[in-house]
Amino acid sequence: MRSVCLALLAAHAVALGLTPPALHRPAVPRVRASLSRASASGKPPATLPDRGPELPPPTEEGGALSQILPLSLLLESQSADRSNDLLIGEDAAAFAWKNEKMGTLLQDGGVVGRDWITFFAAVGTIMSALAVLWIYSPTGYGDDFLAALEAACGGNSHLVTLCYGIIFPIVHSGLASLRPYATKITGERLWRVIFASCSLPLAYSWIVYFISHAHDGIVFWNGEQYPAVHAAAWCTHARNEKPGRRAMPI
Asked: Which of 207, 180, 206, 209 is nearest to 195 (CA)?
């Protein structure tokens, strides 16, 4: 009776185009048997085809993205013709990732390092001093310097901005022109600290004052009463107005 039932199930499966469970044999034992026979005969085993997805080559091996942004541009500076350059000073734009090191603050013999840790420490010290000695009102002198300029200009914001535009270039360019002479006394690193300590406070105060007084002065036109002009201005200029602040004349 059992054989009759199995024969009926097999005939039904063949009619439906299916493989009966009793007749199905996995392919893994066949592969293993063929591999074992190949190893016994001394022949190299047949390699199975790689059915993984066909991925594009990575960027560092010439992928599609390397045509737009070569990775080599981020890892090392490209060579250029420098035969006509004066070659005065250091080549600060040269960069190679393989030469970069974290380093230490002090090397053997007490010499200050020239790596990233030294750079972060120097920048952090200068920015902290800028915040405490110039920007922060209770301890800084930035507001006192601005008050002195406003008093000298009679409170005219245009004249104050003009004074900033005269003082900053004189200090910035003047210190840059003194570099060949001052570095003989102070050294390269100390002169850079002195240069940044004078230029950064003036640049910060000038930018902040200009933004704060950007809408001072005479209004030459005002298109707020025209809805079309107002809509066009909103579409072309992204603004974030604070509550209670007067809208900028259009």
From this structure: 180
Q: Which long-range contacts (CB under 8 A, 24 or more apart) does 151-159 make?
A: 157/209, 157/213, 157/216, 157/217, 158/216, 158/217
User: Tell me: the pLDDT tens digits for 43-56?
Assistant: 555 565 556 567 66
Q: What pTM did the predictor assign?
A: 0.53
For residue 21, report the phi and psi dihedrals to the nearest 5 degrees.
-60, -35
Burial class (CB in 10 A: 0-12, 13-18, 19+), 134: buried
CA distance 98 to 134: 38
Diameter over CA atoms, the chain: 117
Residues 6+ apart with CB under 8 A from 167: 202
Are the CB atoms for 228 and 219 separated by under 8 Å? no
